[in-house]
Structure to design on (908 residues):
């Protein structure tokens, strides 16, 4: 292939007239280059156009089921309409240009309505830090939010540059030309194809100096339920996940981890395994990037490696984790609340005094356990090492970090490592970690010239995860004579994720308080006249990580359940009670009212069932849900229907939005009805789908998604559907039975 | 180690097999038929579902050596009007999210529809509830099975 390279530092900054550009600095960061096929043209690091009229987007985000490839292509084609069948993508090179700014900038510990000097300067600083770091990351429901202006501008400048070329060639005014489905039109009549127009541009064309973005009223793609790109490859076995990488001469590695999470191997006996059929080596792998140490068997075939692994015996080093038990630690979290005040994330008025004065006081304690992610594709990574260079294939949410970590394990510079991001068989935050990458690279370094694929078992995956932290939360509310909330005090205790994550992946310290511990508790819209929301960080040896919706996933269960308790204590309808607390918040009211109306609130559709509702804002998106539940003859909770109402700003693709509601509801129900990780003596007790269950088709409710029309900038969509799930179900269970369930997973008392 | 002839996707091939080697790894590593996925290794998740004489079968817990004389069909070799109708319905309703479980779902769904022309919700529950999906495509899977059944019924209507 005859390839040229385009230095992506050129781009929009070369004198462009930016319309509505949020961060034009994004265009100036780069020192990498985009490979170009013969005749292809790029005016920036995001969009290439070929002489065949095909548009290729530089894809910086990982597809793990959330539909990000489709969503981001829609942003490009909206401004550069080549026809949906003519747009595709290639993985972006590793470069700061593609760093996820929106995902990081959200990490500041301030409420959205806090416009004080400290909050503003923290946001500004975080934005600059994010731009300079240039961390490529798919997570935090941030992809569309991050690239909403960037990709449209990159496409618009490309379109306008081509329009100028066509106008000049045809002696027309640029203003009369439009681009639709791969053809430049004048008065609706085609005058030149996109591919032909590309051929008018030289090898290094000057980008147009002026362009404008389409008005939302003129959108042709955005807002339409476009089907997913490449959907057919998911149905015929041709989609390539990390586990599917096959290379000539490839070896396979299986690993026996120390049973205690985080432990290192003290000694092992691998002689029998080394003599087993097909085995090429038996080697120790130290605890890397937060992972557990273990012994890997490398063989010609995975089955041989797996079988030989049973012949390995190992002794572990002692680690603090070996004395850890989750049941005792849960008690410890509650004790921490007795002893500490924690970090205050939101303080308003004088909640302590007002609580004392209130007509009625309500208190409650809630808790949730640790949770595993269980992506259906177990952790894996393939590394081919050649002494002075290497290639890595990884299903990862963090490409730059993956390359850096692999390079370090191989004793190479990052530039000597080529990374291919495969499709991800689920991510949910687990693939923001790089332990399995470091392990694969460490193993492959022993086999120069041979590609090696490390594949974990399901048990490895469940028992050596970075878990959603357990959390205990206490509430005290003071109700006035009319039952209204006069004072709100909430304090929770859990481990903190961000400092450990930064230390194990980047080797850098955390900055300021970790707002993921309290997000969802301190930043919701309810108007409490007096409030204090705080969090106590408890250090425990369990590795914890980002789990879908992170802090929101459990804080919403606490807050939305306790609001419901207040409503019932006041003898009020839970919907009306919430609406009253949201008098100043029309967007919140609208989603609540829409969900309630579509669910037929307050009446369940059949006798023996009841409705419960919950509202939550996360990642820039508001979701209200109404659950309809019953109690089965076996005494289990059955969820029949979940009605979701969503305000995610301008909807990019209603089809993907509905899919992500369905996804979040089902993932959330799996956790709410059955998810718990127990740890005894440092060993995770669950291991597979029989003891760490996931919802099945037979247990799946009917899920409806209703959109609130909105002109606000787009919010996230991969996670916001999850937080309201557990409280909506718990609130419905209360409505059904009068029993308030304050612990996950939810179950009727025996 | 026994020499055993297997019929995989209509092609007979001889293999040296350990008696306990699961079909899954033969497919994925020897034949590079990677559409059949590994998810649990215990027959709990259904990601490795293939058809043996038309029956949905968990390749991760089925020794390959036990399958001599049977017809093994993987997602790569699945063809015919039923599986085509299933795939068309899956595309029409945009079922797949990450896609990892979908080959197994399609093998299970097409095995069901080959035996039950118009399955009820209960029959779909029974046939597909051991095929787990962590992305949560179940509502669309259910709708797509009905959709495929409808389109097959229209095709065969006089």
């Amino acid at each position: 292939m005859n390839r040229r390279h385009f230095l992506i530092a050129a781009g929009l900054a070369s004198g462009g007239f930016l319309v509505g550009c949020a961060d034009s600095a994004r265009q100036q960061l780069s020192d990498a280059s985009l490979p170009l096929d013969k005749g292809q043209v790029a005016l920036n690091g995001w969009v290439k156009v070929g002489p065949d009229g095909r548009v290729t987007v530089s894809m910086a985000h990982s597809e793990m089921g959330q539909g990000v490839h489709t969503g981001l292509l829609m942003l490009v084609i909206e401004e550069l309409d080549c026809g949906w069948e003519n747009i595709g993508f290639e993985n972006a090179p590793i470069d700061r240009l593609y760093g996820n700014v929106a995902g990081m900038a959200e990490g500041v510990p301030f409420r959205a309505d806090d416009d004080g000097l400290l909050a503003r300067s923290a946001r500004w600083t975080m934005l600059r830090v994010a731009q300079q770091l240039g961390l490529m990351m798919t997570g935090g429901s941030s992809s569309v939010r991050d690239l909403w202006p960037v990709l449209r501008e990159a496409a618009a400048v490309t379109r306008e540059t081509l329009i100028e070329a066509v106008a000049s060639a045809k002696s027309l005014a640029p203003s009369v030309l439009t681009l639709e489905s791969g053809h430049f039109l004048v008065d609706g009549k085609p005058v030149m194809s996109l591919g032909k127009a590309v051929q008018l541009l030289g090898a290094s064309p000057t980008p147009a100096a002026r362009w404008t973005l389409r008005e939302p009223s003129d959108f042709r793609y955005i807002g339409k339920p476009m089907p997913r790109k490449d959907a057919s490859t998911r149905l015929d076995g041709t989609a390539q996940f990390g586990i599917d990488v096959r290379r000539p001469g490839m070896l396979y590695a299986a690993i026996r981890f120390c049973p205690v999470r985080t432990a290192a191997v003290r000694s092992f006996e691998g002689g029998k395994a080394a003599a087993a059929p097909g085995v090429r080596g038996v080697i120790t792998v130290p605890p890397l990037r937060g992972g557990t140490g273990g012994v890997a068997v490398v063989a010609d075939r995975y089955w041989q490696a797996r079988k030989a692994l049973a012949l390995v015996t190992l002794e572990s080093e002692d680690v603090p984790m070996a004395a850890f038990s989750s049941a005792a630690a849960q008690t410890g979290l509650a004790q921490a609340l007795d002893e500490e005040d924690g970090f205050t994330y939101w303080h308003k008025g004088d909640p302590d005094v007002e609580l004392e004065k209130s007509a009625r006081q309500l208190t409650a304690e809630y808790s949730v356990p640790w949770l595993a992610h269980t992506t259906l594709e177990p952790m894996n990574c393939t590394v081919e090492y050649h002494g002075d260079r290497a290639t890595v294939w990884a299903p990862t949410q963090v490409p730059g970090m993956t390359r850096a970590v692999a390079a370090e394990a191989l004793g190479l510079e990052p530039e000597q490592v080529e990374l291919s991001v495969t499709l991800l068989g689920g991510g949910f935050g687990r693939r923001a970690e790089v332990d399995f990458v470091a392990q694969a690279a460490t193993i492959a370094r022993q086999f120069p010239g041979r590609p090696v694929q490390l594949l974990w078992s399901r048990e490895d995956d469940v028992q050596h995860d970075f878990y959603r932290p357990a959390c205990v939360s206490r509430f005290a509310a003071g109700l006035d004579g009319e039952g209204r909330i006069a004072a709100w005090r909430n304090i929770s205790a859990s481990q903190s994720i961000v400092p450990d994550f930064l230390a194990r992946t980047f080797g850098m310290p955390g900055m300021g308080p970790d707002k993921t511990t309290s997000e969802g508790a301190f930043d919701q819209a309810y108007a409490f006249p007096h409030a204090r929301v705080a969090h106590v960080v408890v250090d425990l040896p369990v590795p914890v990580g980002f789990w879908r919706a992170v802090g929101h996933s459990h804080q919403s269960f606490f807050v939305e359940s306790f609001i419901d308790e207040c409503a019932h204590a006041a003898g009020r309808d839970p919907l009306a009670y919430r609406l009253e607390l949201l008098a100043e918040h029309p967007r919140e009211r609208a989603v609540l009212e829409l969900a309630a109306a579509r669910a037929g609130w307050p009446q369940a559709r059949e006798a023996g069932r009841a409705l419960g509702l919950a509202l939550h804002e996360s990642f820039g998106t508001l979701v209200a849900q109404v659950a309809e539940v019953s109690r089965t003859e076996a005494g289990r909770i059955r969820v029949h229907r979940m009605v979701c109402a969503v305000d995610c700003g301008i909807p990019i693709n209603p089809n993907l939005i509905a899919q992500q509601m369905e996804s979040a509801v089902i993932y959330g129900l799996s956790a709410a009805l059955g998810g718990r990780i127990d740890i005894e003596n440092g060993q995770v007790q669950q291991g597979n789908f029989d003891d760490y269950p996931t919802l099945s088709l037979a247990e799946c409710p009917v899920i409806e998604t209703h959109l609130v029309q909105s002109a606000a900038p787009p919010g996230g969509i991969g996670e916001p559907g999850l937080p309201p799930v557990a409280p909506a179900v718990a609130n419905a269970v209360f409505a059904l039975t009068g029993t308030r369930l304050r612990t996950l997973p939810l179950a009727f008392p025996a | 180690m026994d020499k055993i002839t297997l019929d995989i996707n209509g092609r007979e091939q001889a293999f040296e097999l350990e008696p306990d080697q699961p079909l899954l790894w033969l497919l994925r590593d020897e034949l590079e038929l990677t559409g059949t996925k590994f998810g649990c290794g215990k027959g709990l998740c259904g990601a490795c579902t293939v058809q043996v004489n038309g029956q949905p079968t968990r390749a991760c817990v089925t020794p390959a050596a036990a399958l001599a004389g049977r017809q093994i069909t993987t997602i790569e070799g699945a063809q015919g009007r039923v599986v085509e109708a299933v795939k068309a319905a899956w595309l029409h309703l945009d079922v797949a999210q990450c896609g990892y479980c979908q080959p197994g779902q399609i093998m299970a769904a097409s095995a069901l529809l080959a035996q039950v022309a118009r399955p009820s919700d209960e029959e779909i529950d029974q046939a597909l509830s051991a095929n787990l999906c962590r992305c949560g495509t179940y509502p669309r899977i259910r709708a797509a099975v009905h959709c495929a059944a409808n389109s097959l019924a229209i095709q065969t209507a006089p």
In short: Residues 2-73 of chain B form a domain with the Ubiquitin-like (UB roll) fold (CATH 3.10.20.30).
